[in-house]
Amino acid sequence: MNILKVMEILPQRYPILLIDRVLELEEGKRILALKNVTIGEPYFQGHFPPLPMMPGVYMLEAMAQAGGILVYQTLKFDRSKEMLVYAGVDDVRFKKPVFPGDQMVIEVEVLSLRKGLTKLSGVITVKGETASTGIIYVALRKIEDFRNH
Fold first, then answer.
1. Residue 114: pLDDT band by 50, 70, 90 thresholds?
2. Is the pTM here over 0.90, yes or no?
3. 3 state SS of 73
4. CATH class of the domain comprising 3-147
5. CA 106 to CA 148: how far, in whole Å?
6. Catalytic residues
């Protein structure tokens, strides 16, 4: 799945779109995606200029976006009326920094899949080494509910 297909599925756009390509997708089971990290990412201006490294929350967001693609493709709901939102995270660990020039391989597996609440397990590796891990919960919500807050 190239970036154009990714953008058809995910609502995120630059500078928060963090998936460049999907390598593998098994509906209801797992996804393998890529993020090419470049010095042009806006967060590198302030995190940290002498030694630019990707903020951990962006690694977590990349896992959530990969998981979002997996859930969107599995549940096949009307994306003009419903969207996935974060519902929580557990057991997040940042084990290795990610720097400009790195390529993140993002693997997300479904632990439980329901429209109300889906539980995902994510792992990001760089050069075969684990950079971060975590459990992510996403929930399906009506877009209309957010417009009327």
1. confident
2. yes
3. helix
4. alpha beta
5. 34
6. 47
